[in-house]
Amino acid sequence: MASNDNAAEFLVDARWLADHRSDPNLILVDTRPPADYWAGHFEGARHFDPFPFHHSDTSEGSLREFRGQLEWIFSALGVTPAATVVFYENDSGMRATRAAWALDYMGHPSVRILDGGLKCANGPALVTNATPYAPVDFKGTVREDLIAGRGYIVERLGTAGVQIFDVRSDEEYFGERVRAKHAGAVPGAIHRDWTHSVGPDGRFKPAAQLRQEFAALGLDPQSEIIPYCQGGYRSANAYVALRLAGYPRVRNYLGSWGEWGNRDELPMEHPRRKQPVATQTEGSR
Fold first, then answer.
1. Residue whose C-alpha is closest to residue 200's, from 54, 59, 92
2. Is pTM, for the whole model, over 0.85?
3. Of 42, 56, 92, 202, which residue is 20 to 30 A from 86 by alpha carbon distance?
């Protein structure tokens, strides 16, 4: 994905899919839960639900295990060097983008996402049978510039040219919903719920609109942007949205708040909602 200079090619649509279905090097991967896959999927689609594969420790030893896990997963999926791999789910959600980011991180040259997923496919009928395929020995060439660990972030907090992007819900960011030992946020993080990058039709918003919205938040295209959420899934969606918007340097914080918020020694801040300003009326001067 990031290895492709044309960020717009991250996404494919139903017409592209129809035109390339006969390509022998095309691999479709359905990233929905198993029950959804077996209820109906694209013919020939392989299945990989990334949700069971949480990874909230970004120490170097643990990241080596993570890379080994990904090599095993993509070997089992039969991903060859020549394959164009298209991930999909019901819409442009966090499952397909997490799987796509992971394959991009492992250096695969041709990674795509079906924009809008099944909601926007409007094409081939779904099937319930699984087409056999052969596993391979997948070996990645890791893109270290696409991932951030806790140590990397700690060393760069508050420095020029690095911005932290919190894409959790408002309730998580403001500490009203606590999903770790500590509530709070990474100090200095800019916040916006990840869902605002996807339109009501389930597709990513147009690149120009995303760029305008990110700039309005204060995200600088010249900076390195590090999105995070709870477990590195929603932030993978933000990774794709930022790259679509023309932000060339984006690192997904794999551990996210599931790591940061469960460690006592890491710095945290505690944002609070601004109270709405009361509107003066004749009866409330």
1. 92
2. yes
3. 56
